[in-house]
Amino acid sequence: MHLKKTKRNGRVYLSIVQNYRENGTTKTRTIETIGYADAYAGDYDDPIAHFEARVAIMNEERRAGQSAIEFSFPPNCTIDANRTESARWGVAIALAYLDAIEAKRGIEPVARNEQQRVVCEKIEQEERVKPPHNDSSIARRSFEIFAVERMLHASPKHETWERRESFPRPCDFPIDEAYRALPLIAHADERIARSMRMAYERIRPGHAPLECAHVVLGTFAFDDTDDVDSAGNRNAESRMAVCLAMVLDEDGMPAGYRLLEADPDEHAVRSLVNDIKKSTGTRRVVMVAGRLSRAEAIMKMLAAQEDGFIMHRPLETAVEDMRHWVVDDQGYTTSRSGNYRIKSRVRAATVKAPDTSDGKEPAHAARHVHVRDIVFWGRDYALRRQGDRAEAEATTLDGYACIVTSELNLKAPEVFHLYRELWRLAEPFQVLESDFSPSPYPTPLSEHMRAHFAICYAAFFAMRLMRSDLHWRYNAAQVADSLIRMEGGYLAENWFLFGYRSPVSDAIEQAAGVDAARRLRTRQDIRKGIAQARAHIREKRLAEQTGKAEKPSGS
Fold first, then answer.
1. Which of 25, 52, 173, 247 could join 256 via S-S bond, C-beta 3.0 to 4.6 A?
2. Residue-wise over 526-541: b if at least 16 C-beta within 10 A, else e?
C-alpha cells in the first residue's frame, strides 16, 4: 500500500491505495479515502508525513498478518474463464515432503547425458518428432507433479496434467513434453531411489538399522496398448505383468525396490535376496508375497539359507487335514464385533540346503524347521466371495485366508499386519491402463514402466515419511483424503479462501510445521509454506523428540 497524492484545483487530495496484479496487468484499488491534505493542517504539523507514517504501519501490520482484508463483489459477478479458481494447500504440503527427501535430485546428472542420447535416437528414427528441450528441468517438474498427484490418489497422467494450473509451481509446457521426459526419469530410477534413502537417513538419524529387511512382492498387470516398433507403429500386445519387490526396513520405511518378471521362481528370488543383501547391507530378508506358482520351492529355499517368509497358502489345493483344521471352530480368537477371527498352529517342515557355488555337497543336505500356519476369517470377505459365485457353488472355505510364515517369534496378528503390506502397495503403485494407451508422445514400454514405478516409489516414500511424522495414527487413505480436501477457491487479487479442517488436517499441518487452519492464503503464501515445511521436515528429529515411533498400523 502507498499514499496516493492527487492534485485537484491547486489542492492535494490524499487516499491510501494498493497495487495488485490481475490477468498479467497491474491494477489499483482504494483502501481508504482521506481527503484534502490542508483540511488536516490544524491537526498535524505535516499531514502528508503523518499519513505516510500511517501507511507504513498498515504495511507492517499487513506483513505481520494482523490487518483486515476486505473484498467487495457486485451481485452479478461471474467466474473468470481465464483464471484458475483453486489453490491446493494439501498438494503444497505433499510437495514439501517430496522436496525434503530430495526425490528429484537423482534426475539431473542422468538427464543431461541421457537426453542427448534420446534426442539423437529420436531424430534418427522419427524426423517428424520435435526433439525435447535441452534441459532436465522439464523432467524434474514432470516428476514432481506426477509423484505428488500419486500421493493423493492414482489418476492417469493426462488427468493429472489437466489440474496443473493449481499446482504450486509453474508447468508452462505441453503434455507431450512431459511424456518425452519419461525416458529421462526411467534412466535415473536407481539414482532417485538412492537419493531418497540417503536424504531420509540424514534427516531421520534415529531410524531403525537395516538388519532384517522385509521384501514385499506385488504383481501389477495391464494391457500394453502403446508399444512402438522401430518404424513408430503401435502394436497391440497381450496382457502384461510385472512384479515389484519393495524393500522395507524395520520401521516400515522404504529402502529400495526392484522390478522382476511376474511370478518369479526360486532362482529369481534367490538372486533378488542376494542383490538386496549386497546393496543394503542387511543380514536377513523376510519375503512377503501373495499367490506364487513356485511358493513351496521359494519358501524352502529361503528357510534353507536362514532367511524368512510370510506367504499366502492356497486353501483350494490344501490337503484334507489342513482344510479340516481351517473350518474347525476350535482355537479361534474372535473380535468383539464378531466380524473377524484368527488362529494359528506350528508344524514341522523339511528343507534342503541350497546348492553351493563351488559344486560341493552342502554340509547338511536336509534339516527340519518349524513354520506357523495362520488362518484368518472375515465376514465381509466371506460375503464378497459368496457374491462372486452362484449359490450352489458356495463352500465352507468362503471368507478364509491362510498364510504360512517362518517367523515364530511374532504373534499371529503381527504377522498378518506385515502381510497387509501387499494391500498397501495396491493403490500407490497401481498401473493404470489409460496411462499406456496411445499417448501424446509414444514412449517405449520398458522406459515408460521404469518411469512409472520411479514416480510411484517417490510418492510411496513421501507418504510413508508423512505418516511416520504423524506417529502412524492415520492410514494412507485418511491422509490422502485430507490433503485433497485442503483446497481453496479464488476470491480476488490473488487471495484464496479455504474451508476444510479436520483432526487429520490439523495433525498434518502441525507435523509439517506450518500455520494450521488458515482461511486465507495467497499463492506467495503457499510457496513460502512449501519452503517452511521443507525446512521443518528436514530439521525435525522425531526419534529424539518423541521417542521411537510406533510401528505402522492400518492400510
1. 247
2. beebbebbbebbbebe
Number of residues written out for the chain: 555
Per-residue pLDDT at 227 exceeds 70: no
The confidence band for 125, taking pLDDT boundaries of 50, 70 and 90, is: very low
> What do you get for the CA distance between the two ends of the chain, in Å?
50
- Please give the single-letter amino acid code of residue 185: I
Segment of 77-91, 255-269, 316-330, 339-353 carrying the highest mean pLDDT = 255-269
What's the rounded Cα separation, in Å, for the pair 390 and 380?
17
Complete DSSP assignment for 442-480: ---HHHHHHHHHHHHHHHHHHHHHHHHHTTT-S-HHHHH
How many angstroms separate the CA atoms of 532 and 483, rounded?
Answer: 17
Sheet holding 520-522: strands in order across?
Answer: 86-88, 487-490, 495-498, 520-522
Listed range (34-38, 289-293, 377-381, 502-506) with the worst mean pLDDT: 377-381
In one-letter notation, the amino acid at residue 436 is F
Compute the distance between CA of residue 257 and CA of residue 212 in angstroms, rounded to an integer: 15
Q: Which three cell numbers stand for residue 203?
A: 534427516
Cα 499 from Cα 518, distance rounded (Å): 9
φ, ψ of residue 156 to 5 degrees: the values are -60, 155
Separation of alpha carbons 463 and 243, rounded Å: 21
Nearest C-alpha neighbor of 308 from the set 326, 279, 322, 288: 288
Q: How far from chain centre, in Å, is Cα 31?
A: 44
Read off the pTM: 0.78
Place 365 in a pLDDT band, splitting at 50, 70 and 90: low
d(CA 350, CA 336): 38
Q: Which three cell numbers stand for residue 419?
A: 502381510
User: What integer is the mean pLDDT of 265-270?
Assistant: 94
Q: Phi-psi region for residue 281, left (φ > 0), alpha (ψ -120 to 50) or beta? A: left
pLDDT greater than 90 at residue 554? no
Distance in angstroms (rounded) separating the CA atoms of residues 248 and 174: 36
- pLDDT of res. 24: 61
| Distance separating alpha carbons of residues 313 and 317, to the nearest angstrom | 9
Q: In the block, which residue shows the cell 542427448? A: 116
